[in-house]
């Protein structure tokens, strides 16, 4: 019984929204399930897909909260 967890940020999906739509989630579930069926021959009925949306406050990058890290990158001169 495969269990696949997909974590996506709540940003950058479109300028007018902050989360993944139900249709997009359905497409992710279908695509991942079919991939496991085609590659590992895992039946669709035994595959579980969990989608977690992560707020920017809840993840970090380079030892900093992600928004601080991005500010640091933006302040760096380009080479």
Automatic annotation (TrEMBL):
GO terms for molecular function: isomerase activity. The active site is at 2 (proton acceptor). It comes from the Bacteria. It is an enzyme of class 5 (isomerase). InterPro entries: 4-OT, 4-OT-like_dom, Tautomerase/MIF_sf. Keywords: Isomerase. Residues 2-66 form the 4-oxalocrotonate tautomerase-like domain. Its EC number is 5.3.2.-. It holds the Pfam family Tautomerase. Gene3D superfamilies: Macrophage Migration Inhibitory Factor. Belongs to the 4-oxalocrotonate tautomerase family. This is Tautomerase.
